[in-house]
């Protein structure tokens, strides 16, 4: 059986590695190498690095210039992948829309590993929103891939509690590890046609959009009030947006608005732009009182 895997992140590798041990993957499709860090070093995705280490064929395709979630040329993608004669496509944390013309070609179509309990938190970044909302439980969902993001049939789903103080990185790792296991448990019945999946309940859909830098902003007065009242929403926001975009605010220093990063809540540690991190008492004495 020819399996084509679409993925890009370290979370994708968790699924890819587990899948390949039981169902050898014929080829991986991942995003092109990109500049990373302050020095803008061109760096391949974790999936590409894994594939090179495992001597697996790799395909990358240019992104659309104005719509990076699309490919520059769907035709190039389809023609290249068809040479592998795929029986099924498996995706996990890929980051781009796979052409509908492609997902319909393999005998068994395409399935995706998604880190939320669909239809709650459709979209590319469900984990921070799960934490921010204070959801008591989350989970992983295996769906068929359709022309729209995350609206395919639910093939399998597994729930887990959202433990107190868990970070986005920890929760992602937990979910994709669970997802890899669920994928392997699900594939036999899916491939045999026994499991055809069930439609999602459209009325229960919520969307987890991609985070922006501004999501981490909190008004100064709101921050102080939440801090003084020990508001649990503040702790969730700090945790949900760690390490990026981070929690930050603005204060006026000598008549100019300055950005202040909230580096730690307990004990409170902040960093005024252009300055070193300091504890709250030092900051308050220097800039507030």
TrEMBL record:
Occurrences of domain Formyl transferase N-terminal (ranges): 1-186
PANTHER family recorded: METHIONYL-TRNA FORMYLTRANSFERASE, METHIONYL-TRNA FORMYLTRANSFERASE, MITOCHONDRIAL
Entry EC number(s): 2.1.2.9
UniProt GO MF annotations: methionyl-tRNA formyltransferase activity
CDD domains: FMT_core_Met-tRNA-FMT_N (cd08646), Met_tRNA_FMT_C (cd08704)
Record's keyword terms, sorted: Protein biosynthesis, Transferase
Ranges of residues in domain Formyl transferase C-terminal: 211-269
Protein name: methionyl-tRNA formyltransferase
Family to which the UniProt record says this protein belongs: Belongs to the Fmt family.
One Pfam short name: Formyl_trans_N
